[in-house]
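A reminder from the course coordinator: this example appears on the midterm review sheet, so study it carefully.

Given structure:
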């Protein structure tokens, strides 16, 4: 049953698989669809032996033809079976009945599908360009380079690794715009629960700053990072961390200060340079330990007996740095000479291996080691806990007890230097040196008494500058 035609002939009949398999190159066959005017399937055997199938129909009085596919003669061949071809032809016949020109309708549908694919691709590209939470925090860290101190940037990198990357990789991988307040709580709660309450508050502040950065950074001209965040809210801004009142009244007694000075270098776990750092902080009248750690050898002038510190407190960071010249007593110079014997070949005096200065947490660990040692016992009583920052307060109160004028004390420690005074000293820090030298001289006399050095004799601690600043 069926017919085999020469090219150009058309018989209105039904074909079978055997008919199609018997076609030779140049021969054709027609399989009429049931129902008047439904059209037919036109089979054309190509020179390669492949039988191509077309849906043939009438439109505007003209015979039209739309490709359906390739006839599948054997199970392993590619293409469509006769049953599948007939089903597809029926679908096309329905299109012809509803829309008339099948070819035009299919071209229109393909154009729509192509537009949809382009839109989907565009949306996918936009989605892929949207930064993750991890991208946002790292972008924020990069934005702080050159503005914040290297120590702050290093601290941000440390917090990213310890509080985000290691414990919360899934949250980091989220798109930044999808992060909500509950995710921020998931990050902060474990920090709080392990007792690091101050760090939880600090981490929250950094998260707020990172999202604030993401809300505005896309509008920055010349930005190198192509990531967009499409943020609408700052999820960290709604989170509150209970403020922890850290004790700020601790200062060492004269006996405790003397005990620390005399034993810190003999404490197991405290390296020689770290021990000398504590002595140097004390000998310089309680300068901020973080500022001292950041100094390089270039910040010390052995001819003029001065140390140059850069104070970067407040929102201005690096851009609002304020120089603070500190006169060095003979005691401080002697400590520096000892440090130079150990670390004189490095850029930084206050370092362990020369690759970078001490990290900000190292002095805290060193004080903890001293407090855990047998040295931290006076008259069989354990020395109460204190932090490296308490040495600054200790020096302040030592000056108060020994009659050093508060103005001189504040000047030496760079306390409250604001307004006109700050502007004057920031532009010309050398102008305050004579008064600072007087302050350090008075302080060193008081320190000598506390340390039990020659009582009543203080001429060996007078500061004599050996050169002009």
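Designed residues:
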């Amino acid at each position: 049953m069926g017919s085999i035609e020469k090219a150009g002939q058309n018989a209105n009949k039904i074909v079978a698989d055997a008919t199609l398999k018997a076609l030779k190159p140049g021969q054709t066959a027609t399989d009429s669809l049931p129902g008047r005017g439904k059209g037919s399937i036109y089979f054309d055997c190509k020179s390669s032996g492949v039988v191509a199938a077309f849906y043939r129909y009438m439109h505007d009085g003209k015979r039209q033809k739309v490709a359906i596919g390739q006839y599948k003669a054997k199970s392993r061949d590619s293409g469509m079976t006769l049953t599948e071809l007939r089903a597809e032809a029926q679908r096309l016949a329905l299109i012809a009945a509803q829309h008339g020109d099948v070819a035009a309708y299919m071209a229109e549908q393909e154009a729509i599908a192509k537009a949809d694919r382009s839109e989907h691709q565009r949306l996918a590209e936009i989605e892929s360009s949207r930064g993750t939470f991890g991208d946002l925090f790292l972008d924020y860290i990069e934005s702080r380079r050159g503005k914040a101190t290297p120590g702050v940037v290093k601290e941000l990198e440390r917090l990213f690794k310890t509080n985000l990357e290691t414990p919360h990789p899934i949250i980091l991988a989220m798109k930044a715009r999808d992060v909500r307040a509950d995710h921020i709580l998931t990050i902060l709660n474990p920090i709080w629960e392990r007792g690091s309450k101050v760090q939880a508050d600090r981490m929250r502040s950094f998260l707020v700053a990172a999202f604030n950065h993401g809300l505005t950074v896309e509008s920055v001209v010349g930005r190198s990072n192509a990531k967009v965040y499409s943020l609408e809210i700052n999820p960290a801004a709604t989170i509150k961390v209970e403020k922890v009142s850290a004790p700020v009244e601790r200062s060492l007694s004269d006996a405790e200060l003397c005990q620390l000075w005399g034993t810190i270098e003999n404490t197991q776990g405290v390296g020689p340079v770290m021990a000398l750092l504590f002595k140097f902080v004390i000998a310089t009248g309680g300068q901020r330990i973080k500022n001292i750690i950041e100094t390089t050898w270039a910040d010390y002038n052995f001819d003029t007996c001065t140390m140059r510190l850069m104070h970067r407190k407040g929102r201005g960071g690096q851009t609002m740095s304020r120089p603070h010249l500190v006169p060095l007593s003979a005691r401080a110079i002697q400590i520096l000479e000892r440090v130079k014997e150990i670390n004189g070949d490095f850029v930084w005096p206050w370092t362990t291996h020369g690759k970078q200065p001490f990290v900000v947490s190292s002095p805290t660990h060193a004080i903890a080691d001293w407090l855990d040692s047998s040295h931290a016992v006076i008259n069989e009583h354990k020395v109460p806990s204190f932090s490296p920052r308490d040495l600054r307060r200790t020096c302040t109160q030592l000056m108060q007890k020994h009659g050093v004028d508060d103005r001189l004390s504040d000047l030496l420690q760079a306390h409250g230097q604001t307004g006109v005074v700050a502007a004057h000293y920031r532009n010309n820090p050398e102008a305050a040196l004579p008064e600072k030298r007087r302050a350090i001289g008075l302080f060193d006399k008081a320190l000598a008494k506390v340390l039990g050095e020659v009582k009543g004799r203080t001429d060996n601690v007078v500061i004599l500058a050996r050169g002009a600043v």
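The first strand starts at residue 5 and ends at 6. The chain has three domains: 5-121, 133-219, 254-461.
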